[in-house]
Amino acid sequence: MSARETILRRIRAAVADAPEVAVPRDYRTASGAGGLGGSAVQDLPGLFAERVDDYRATVLRAGPGEVAGVVAERAAARGVERLAVPPGLPEEWLAGLCDVRLLRDDPPLANDELDRAHGVITGCAVAVAETGTIVLDGGPGQGRRALTLLPDYHLCVVPAGHIVRGVPEAVALLDPRRPLTWISGPSATSDIELDRVEGVHGPRVLDVVIVGN
């Protein structure tokens, strides 16, 4: 018997006679009328862009037919020569990357090769306007978690239709059984003296392209 099985067996034995406990489920399942800002939100993409900008990320807007041009411009501006690409990403988003080597993560790239990538491009499962948060769930165009944690640069394309108002609305759309990654700006942390260090737990640079009107 493994150590895990031994621990679980002991826990089951210890709580065998414990009474059933009702778990309250009265938490919010939708944002309030005023949201975080105290007033109704009309322009979700605009609010999302504002909040993402607060995190020191670069936010760009693009029409449905302009994504490839914006992606190519961002890759050139960041000096990207090797770009990791998850399975299922729309090929039209990559059409302008003539001088960039695309590292297809299918089959999965080795960690050392992924670490040498200059960046990664993904879509997202959902985005939260009130908090400027992007959520990845490993679905098509998002890839496995390591794909967005090892490269130093993340370019995320967010369709306007994927943006919801608050965290409750986002949670309602997500499957808790999937590997969820919540991203609020570039990876950053601070020590006890509040010295900010970026890129410790993930990409230090984040570009977000919002697609749609």
Automatic annotation (TrEMBL):
Signal peptide: none annotated. InterPro entries: FTHF_cligase-like_sf, LUD_dom, NagB/RpiA_transferase-like. Residues 112-211 form the LUD domain. PANTHER family: LACTATE UTILIZATION PROTEIN C. This is LUD domain-containing protein. It comes from Sinosporangium siamense.
